[in-house]
Write a structure and sequence with these properties.
This protein is α+β, with helices and mostly antiparallel strands and 113 residues long. Helices cover 37% and strands 26% of the residues. It contains 4 helices and 5 strands.
Length: 113
């Protein structure tokens, strides 16, 4: 499963990319890496592996690789699936057709129209 990471620059000797999160990348299942800069020139570069990214952009420890935690990815997956759920429809489908709860929901729907 691909993993997301950020390049976090603690010091910017060149004055070009700034500090903080300066790039976002993905490590693919085969180890290849795609990196894009979070700047006004968001170019994308492909690297053979994460070690290559560290060697080129690490600046002797002034830039670190910060991996995106798995829980965050899981949260966004759940969030995207939940937004398509209509709880009222799920509940209504499970209620007896002639019960008081179904009648209450139907009455409420009629009043809101």
């Amino acid at each position: 499963m691909a993993k997301t990471f950020y390049l976090v620059r603690n010091e910017d000797d060149s004055g070009i990319s700034g500090t903080g999160r300066v790039a976002q990348g993905i490590v693919f299942d085969n180890g290849k890496v795609a990196l894009t800069w979070l700047s006004e020139h968001p170019s994308v570069t492909i690297y053979d592996n994460l070690g290559e990214v560290r060697a080129i952009h690490g600046h002797a420890g002034k830039t670190e690789v910060e991996m995106e935690p798995e829980w965050k990815r899981a949260f966004y997956e759940l969030k995207s699936s939940i937004t398509s759920i209509n709880v009222e429809t799920i509940v209504t489908d499970r209620l007896p057709t002639d019960g008081p709860a179904r009648k209450h929901i139907s009455d409420k729907d009629q009043k809101s129209k």
